[in-house]
Automatic annotation (TrEMBL):
May act as a scaffolding protein within caveolar membranes. Interacts directly with G-protein alpha subunits and can functionally regulate their activity. One of its GO terms (cellular component) is Golgi membrane. This is Caveolin. It is a peripheral membrane protein. Keywords: Cell membrane, Golgi apparatus, Membrane. It is found in: Cell membrane; Golgi apparatus membrane; Membrane, Caveola.
Length: 131
């Protein structure tokens, strides 16, 4: 595995969680004509950000490492299944389907091909005239 450094600045380089970027302005907004006094708005902003940050950090401290362990095991199992079960099974299925496709195609060409060709020749001589 080697020593890989984790990026402590950009923690979502693939933008997996853009849908949960929530700021105060995304949740609370006072329309024109319905403004609270400035100290209420300013302190609400501070309360929202502080509680959101603290709650997230407490949950991350309590659950982050155990959940990372569980997700690591989950993806290890998925990788194992794909390497040792799903991909070989799919490959065997594709090989067998290719063989069946050739067999079925040959049967159709031998049995139905001449019949369809004869019908095509018969119907190609039909001429329709509008009067």
């Amino acid at each position: 595995m080697g020593d890989v450094e984790v990026d402590l600045i950009n923690r979502d380089p693939n933008n997996l969680n853009d849908h949960i970027k929530v700021a105060f302005e995304d949740v609370l907004a006072e329309p024109e004509g319905a403004h609270s006094i400035d100290c209420v708005w300013r302190n609400s902003y501070k309360c929202f950000n502080c509680s959101k940050g603290c709650c997230y950090n407490v949950l991350a401290i309590l659950c982050g490492i155990p959940l990372a362990l569980c997700w690591g095991c989950e993806f290890a199992v998925i990788t194992f299944q794909h390497v040792w079960q799903i991909t070989p099974c799919l490959r065997a299925f594709m090989i067998n389907c290719g063989c069946a496709q050739k067999f079925f195609g040959t049967c159709l060409q031998c049995c139905l091909g001449p019949i369809m060709e004869t019908c095509g020749l018969c119907f190609s001589n039909i001429v329709v005239k509008n009067s």
